[in-house]
Amino acid sequence: MGSILSLPWFDFTVSGVVIGSIYALMAVGLALIFGVANLINFAHGAVFTVGAYVGWVCAVALGLPLWATVPLVALGGGLVGAGIEYIAIRPLNRQSRIAPLLATIGVGLILDQIVHILFGANPRALPVPMPGWRVSVGQGSIGPIDITIFVTAVIAAAALYAFLFRTRLGMAVRATAQDEDAAKQMGVNIHAVNMAVFAIAGALGAIAGLLVGIYYNAIDPNTSFQIMLKGMVAIVIGGMANVPGAIGGGVILGLIESYGIALFGASYRNLFAFAVLLLMLLVKPNGLFAKGREREAEPMTGTFVIQSMPVRPPGWLLALGVAAAALVPLAGQPYLTQVMTNAFLYALAAISLTLIAGTVGLVSIGHAALLAIGAYASALLTIAGLPVALGLVAAAAITALLGTALAYPAFRLRGHYVAIGTLAIGEIVSLVILNWTSLTNGSMGVFGIPPLTLFGVDFFSTNPSYWLVLGLVVVFALLQTRLLSSHLGRTWRAIREDTVAAETYGVGSNYYKGLAYGFAGFTAGLAGAVTAHQFSYINFDTFNLLTSVLILTIVILGGLGNVTGAIVAAVLVAGLPEMFRVLAEYRMLFYGAALLLLIRFRPRGLLGSG
């Protein structure tokens, strides 16, 4: 107890308030967009990164002072935000909320990749000259950086308040947030309002990027996703569309992280954030500062999923395709065979996600967590002495049980909260793997994983491994197709279309969602386990957010709920880019553009939604 009391709590409080001020800037932008457009902007973190690098160009490359850098950063972020609204959001205003949400994921990937191409993947120093004095307060102190960041955040918040309550456009923004239809009838230009909101949010996010760079004296092109999630946690704490609540939520999150670091260490910082996020979604999803009845969450499927009848290839064509795929190793091209093996592993994961997201309607953005659970379970069990064959089955079963248990709290959520909840679950799994060093070896990962040897037969060489994975894809595709054509499949689709109506007829929606998640978890866990034995090494970052986004892109390309489409899309998305390794630097740019174009021009996927 004495050691805890002796910690410099004032310094931790100052640090929490400073970082919380930055989170608040991110959260205010997200809350504004959600209030007006009813949308979670997953590209907001990328705008943060763009702002950090615009600040680097101004402060370092051009040598401009801070007072001139901040307005230019805000201008750059505002232009990017307005561009996101015009290119990715406005064309989708007639589609359900899942469409623009997924479009912002694609835009975020594109922006992040452009930053990587222009500035490289390594962090850069952002030295901003500051006086060296510090003011002592009790056992702690406050420095000029702390004051600068806090004052900048306060000025930005005051400017936003003045805009919202002292300008005609600001009043139009508030009117649109309260009732969009009534605002239209009063002559409000909704497009202009949306663009203004995205521009303001972009400016605030860009300033936050600059302030983080000043605080840590460095900027990193790989931080956009994490900082976007911090802003998301803040608005969940404060209230999704509550701007003052977003400010309070950002400060609260900053203090929670700072005090958590003081007590448990820096490696647990993000775990605290996502644990708070999941807790808030379950206990008080409307936020701590919500007033009145919040806007009802919309279903994330509906018209986006079933705009056309799915294409059903005849049985002979499917059999011909399987036969042709089985002959790939006979071409004598080991590299091609390995590429197709990886593509079919993605197909196995996509089959599992298309059941959850397409058939049941639970849009999961953290699906890679299931692969990670399966990979680690099989790796640890087989290293401990369990035969590989039993390890694969046991890992798949563990993933089914554990994945369903982790996702169960999200079954009661609706709308955007489902996507946020599954994203939080995915990050929590990754962070638990990172911090549970006694079991997972932490950041060092697990190595020396036994090769694929099943019942005395070696499957670790290129050709046998390929045939094994192809066989698994065929078996699980047939099994899932049979399930979808059964009474169980019809029940899943009924839950997707109208959960309330299904429950009125006596359908236990959580029970059937659990069945779907269990089957999908078994399939995804098996895919992760096979991947682990193929690579012989895994770590907490092997199955990350980009893996989840890639699997989601595959599912949308093939058609949500379409098993055959998931397999075809996996070959196209995961296989074809490998044929052009010279363009590997632009791979994520390709994925982001593909996702954006699909949502815009072919939301039903190549083979239609199931």
Automatic annotation (TrEMBL):
Gene Ontology MF annotations: branched-chain amino acid transmembrane transporter activity
InterPro entries named among the record's database cross-references: ABC_BtuC-like, ABC_transp_permease, LivM-like
Record key words, sorted: Cell membrane, Membrane, Transmembrane, Transmembrane helix
Localization per Swiss-Prot or TrEMBL: Cell membrane
A GO cellular component entry from the record: plasma membrane
Transmembrane intervals: 12-34, 46-64, 70-89, 101-121, 141-164, 193-219, 231-256, 263-283, 315-332, 344-377, 383-408, 415-436, 465-484, 515-537, 549-574, 586-603
Membrane topology: Multi-pass membrane protein
Protein's name according to its UniProt entry: ABC transporter permease
Organism, as annotated: Amaricoccus solimangrovi
